[in-house]
Amino acid sequence: MQIEVNSIMDGEITTIKDFGAFVKLSTGDMGLVHISEIADTYVKDVKEFVSVGQAVKVKAVSYTHLRAHETGRNLVCRLLLEKKKKKKKKKKKKNKNKKK
Length: 100
Hints:
By secondary structure, this protein is mostly beta strands. The chain is 0% helix and 39% strand. It contains no helices and five strands. The chain has strands at 8-17, 20-25, 30-34, 55-65, 73-79. Strands 1-2-3-5-4 form a five-stranded mixed β-barrel. Strand 2 (20-25) and strand 3 form a beta hairpin. The protein is elongated, with a radius of gyration of 17 Å. The termini are far apart.
């Protein structure tokens, strides 16, 4: 069964690369969230926005055709806004009661 463009699905991040993240969709299919579809802001490092195993909601954007020797088509997805927030880095707390 082919996934329709503009379909919204649940998925899980399986692999992160410099160019984006691969998502296993609830249908069992795989999709690619290109780095340009990760957030509405500039993304230098995909790992600042998503992590492997993270549950996400994606929208099917398009299909790209594979090279001649491959079969099928690649599904390209967009990460939906609710999951696009940059992960906050934990700051170390300074011990104010530190004795001199």
